[in-house]
User: What shape does this take?
Amino acid sequence: MQIGGKFFSFSHSRLPTKWYRATLPFLMHKAATRFWMLTTLALGLLVGGVVAPWVASYQKNQPEEDVVAWAAEAEWELPQAPRPEVPFAASLRADGYVELMARHVPVPVKRPGTVKEVTAKPGQYYEEGDLLVMLEGNDEELERARLRHRAAKALLARTEAELKTERIKESEFAERYERVRELVAMEAASPAEMEQFSYQLRLSRARIEELKAQRQLHRAQLEELATQLSHQQLRAPVGGYVWSVLAEPGMYFEPGKDFPTLIISPDTQKVVRVLVPEAEAARLQPRQQAVAFLPGEGGAMLELAYVRTEPEVELQVRLGEEPARFIQVVFRVIGDEVPLVVGQKLEVYLEVQALSARASSSPAAG
Assistant: This one.
């Protein structure tokens, strides 16, 4: 071909031979790779479609006993905690929780208010009447109530003192009157003198009655002012150890709608409350014998002494489970060698009647 006086040729012999020889093997190699990849994928899909239904059918036809045996064998291979040496022929395991011996005395809020200050500390002992919690209120009104309370307390003390003095005078006047009356009987004194001491005696006794009425009035005023102050203050109703403090500064409480702000226990002796499933209640015995073990392998054994069986049944509801009912049996720990913490969980074993003996003693047996 001739263009512009120059000759161009497009024959095969004119192609660059070096580029052709270099790229041809590479293109052939890529084609072979793609061919084998597609072939392998097709074979995999074919084998999966044939084998998967067969495996599913095989597993479905397997007997259930083999699966159960395998599960039991797997469970047997897991390490099990060793059972402690229980000194009973037949025993029932139950959970026990350490708590205080005495009943808890709650200290509820008497009026709505916000906690201003908490002076009570858990674990400390407080005498009856000690301040535990201060609620916020009108400071001026509270100060006036405090002043009136202080004044009523002073008046009551003065009335008590006057009453004591007047009783001493009454005793002296009565003694003088009896002496003068004897002298008048012997004609050694005039009846006018006896009448004078009789008048003083009647006057002293009237004064005593007046002071008694004043004392009663001052006591009523003092109790009323103390009640007003108690609306702003929570004091210990009994002497004892503070077990829990649920109040914090800034918390708002309403009577009867919130938890008690404090719980006081007059006794520090600890007991173990054991929860026995209601279905096992028939196996319990009078004056139940039991032992407890501390959690963990090799825990010490604690001897327990029966205290009482609670009249109410403990009902526990757990998510996803049926409600469970438990009999509450309370035991006292014999000895105090091992320190126990309130709320601690113990592993308790109770001496019970063996299941075989229970079945033989039932009316249906025999």
Q: What stands out?
A: Residues 6-15, 74-80, 360-366 have pLDDT under 50 and may be disordered. DSSP finds five helices and 16 strands in the chain. The two ends are 124 Å apart (CA to CA). The longest strand covers residues 301-316.
